[in-house]
Fold:
Amino acid sequence: MGEYPAATLDRVFSAVSDPTRRAILARLAESDARVTDVASVFPISLNSTSKHIRVLERAGLVRRKVRGREHILSLEPSPLSDAAEWIEHYRKFWSDQLASLDAFVTRRGNAETAS
Amino acid sequence: MGEYPAATLDRVFSAVSDPTRRAILARLAESDARVTDVASVFPISLNSTSKHIRVLERAGLVRRKVRGREHILSLEPSPLSDAAEWIEHYRKFWSDQLASLDAFVTRRGNAETAS
DNA sequence: CGGATATTCACCCATGAGGGTGAATAAAGC
DNA sequence: GCTTTATTCACCCTCATGGGTGAATATCCG
Structure:
């Protein structure tokens, strides 16, 4: 945690904002795969898929091992930690807000009961 | 949870991928604010800030109440639920992977001890 | 060596994003 | 009614993105 610079949060969120790239990650969650294997699943060209993979690499979400002419891709979910952390901060805000609303309603209920 | 269509996940991730917009959300987490209030914090123009706010609105992360000429903005973190859910899925994959690595190391350790 | 396979490089194109400015609209306030 | 304030609309510019194609590179295999 916290081992990725702030700019990476931008790249991670940006990377996963694309449905094709999320699908690539889903594919790699099943098993490691070559660029061609990943590309064969999608209606877009091999070339475009290769570009998506590069975006995921820059976000640190995909690792590549070159073995001869084949590039073996694997999922690297650890950069998602900072993203999850960021989100949780706001979800906490949300539950706090609900809690104070609840407290308010409860207080009002008590006041009305008391009157 | 699950009450936002899939396209919203795109918009949410895309919206929070920009540091200015994350800063706007941080500002609104402190308190509700007008467009001008939010804009005054940033080095960019009021107009650009207004555009960022619109992006956040389309992602469902900001709500707007028009009161006369003032537009009061408030944080709406609930669309982050689906984003958090998506991320958690891959973090689970990550911990599963660690667990099986751990199991492998443990097994190998036992085997070596046994030999 | 020569051909097939895997991947990227170098482009082209259209669209959207993020920044800006100046004018328009709408509501307050004097 | 006129002016100020709050916000958006309508543009402009630049750069990145997502899609494509064709050629280059690198490796494997017969």
Summary: The longest helix of chain B spans residues 80-114. Chain B has five helices and three strands. The first strand of chain B starts at residue 33 and ends at 34. The helical segments of chain B are 6-16, 19-30, 35-40, 46-58, 80-114.
